[in-house]
């Protein structure tokens, strides 16, 4: 779900006192557990096509589903890639507007027990240009070249990476999104410029040497 600026998840429990009438201290035990998730964020969409973010659209749809078909799944992931899978129902979807645009909010209730997902370590990564693994590429001035990042295994828990150009005045990095980014030729190069991609998990690095004609 893109565009979020706030996410809160709070667990809750119903308890019952199991102590006898003569006991001086309570002996509470849990009878039920649950949880509530609140999401807020700016509406995200493509101004040219009108297509909205699929994650936001799914939450809006689930807010209108009635009955047992209203259950959906939400994956919560921390910055290091540890994740849990939650069955939820969307109980409320709101929207309001201010000078910054439209603000949307959703309230979700937990259904059943959260499932902790196994942590899968990243073992290697590769850089793909036009579908082929590359360590060097040649582009023209003002040319934008998409670069894809392939992770092994593909379902690695932490899929975050950083990317930086050693000379942004000649080779710029832009539009880092998901497992892809663009390189843009700014000025001709006398020697290849190193574009370094580094994974957060296991600090694996790959270098793409870029020559600009």
List the topology elements:
Blueprint: E1 4-17, E2 28-42, H1 54-62, E3 72-77, E4 83-98, E5 101-110, E6 115-116, E7 124-129, E8 132-133, E9 136-139, E10 144-152, E11 161-165, E12 171-177, E13 180-185, E14 193-199, E15 205-212
Parallel strand pairs: 9-15
Antiparallel strand pairs: 1-2, 2-5, 3-4, 4-5, 4-6, 7-8, 7-10, 10-13, 11-14, 12-13, 14-15
The major β-sheet equals: 6 strands, antiparallel
> Number of helical runs?
1
- By DSSP, the count of extended strands is 15
Helix content range: under 10%
Structure class: mainly beta
Q: Unreliable segments (pLDDT under 50, ≥5 consecutive)?
A: none
Mean pLDDT: 94
Strand content: over 45%
Give the overall form: elongated
What string gives the helices and strands in order? Answer: EEHEEEEEEEEEEEEE
Summary of the model, kept short:
4% of the residues lie in helices and 55% in strands. It has 213 residues and is mainly beta.
């Amino acid at each position: 779900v893109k565009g979020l600026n706030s996410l809160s998840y709070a667990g809750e429990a119903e308890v019952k006192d199991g102590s006898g009438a003569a006991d001086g201290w309570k002996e509470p035990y849990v009878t039920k557990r649950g949880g509530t998730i609140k999401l807020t964020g700016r509406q995200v969409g493509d101004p040219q096509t009108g297509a909205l973010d699929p994650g936001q659209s799914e939450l809006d749809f689930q807010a209108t589903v009635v009955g047992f078909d209203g259950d959906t799944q939400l994956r919560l992931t921390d910055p290091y890639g540890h994740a849990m899978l939650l069955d939820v129902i969307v109980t409320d979807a709101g929207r309001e507007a201010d000078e910054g645009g439209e603000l949307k909010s959703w309230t979700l209730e937990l259904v059943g027990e959260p499932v902790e997902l196994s942590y899968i370590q990243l073992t290697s990564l590769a850089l793909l240009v036009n579908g082929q693994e590359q360590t060097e590429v040649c582009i023209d001035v003002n040319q934008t070249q998409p670069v894809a990042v392939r992770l092994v295994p593909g379902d690695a828990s932490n899929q975050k990476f950083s990317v930086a150009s050693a000379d942004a005045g000649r080779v710029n990095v832009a539009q880092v999104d998901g497992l892809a980014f663009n390189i843009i030729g700014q000025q001709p190069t006398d020697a290849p410029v190193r574009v370094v991609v580094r994974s957060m998990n296991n600090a694996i690095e790959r270098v793409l040497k870029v020559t600009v004609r």
